[in-house]
Model the fold of this input.
Amino acid sequence: MELRFLLDEKAKKLLYASEVISHGHIPEAMLQYPNMFNGPFPALAKISAYARKRQMYFGKLIIEVEGNNADKELLELLEGLDAGKDDDALLGSVKDALVSDLSKYGSGLAANIKEVFGFALPNSVTVVLGQQNEGSGGSMLGADDGEITVGLFTSHETKTEEFFGVLAHEILHGLISLYKPLLRNKKASDLEELLLEYSVPHGILAWRIGLDKKFDTQFSYKNSLRRGYPEEMSMKVKEMVEKYASGNSHTTIWDEIKSAFPDCIDENRIGTLC
Ligand SMILES: [Zn+2]
Done:
């Protein structure tokens, strides 16, 4: 797997727009009547309406912009959005660290994602890098036709190996979107996040590829509660991942998920993964 970094200004504007819009920070009145307001929100509201109109993932729009295939309307909307200036030296060093971590952990990642989840990594993953004030984070911007696009946010506090784990986490979201083993309902989407919370940047996958020295589910458990996930469900996922980790079975984790959360999985889909 290769990482394809997009440092293009327009791709970055779409990354920031996607993040602000998906966090739901734009008041309804601004979404409906953007022309009445000043500042970045009207531009964001129009981009949000544009993405909805085209029923597109931001990842898809980013690929269009990057391939010079974006329509005039989108280019004009992006023209009207000022995304400020990032610390290019910081983004450059983070990019180098990700490339070097990929050469260190990449083959382990591919092998373990195959063993644990039954997924094959795509040939390349598109990454748009942005900056945030504190900590680090990521979001999966779209997975379609075997292509995964992720956004990653770094800060001066970012620990590089953990950041590679954040990348792996978003790639896993992308693979779940591509392989579709889970149903589309609230419980299944909570399960997806919890399963990944116990996988990487901390959890079974991080431990198996050597990002974490030990398998510490307590960290993931506390983090899941801090993030507001239901305690009972988190505990059930914790026990399930621990059981899978302690066994020496040669099946994927979907077997365990099938017995623990039968109402969240698509049996036909996981048939090919177990
Ligand atoms: Zn996630």
Q: What stands out?
A: The chain is about 55% helix and 10% strand. The radius of gyration is 19 Å.
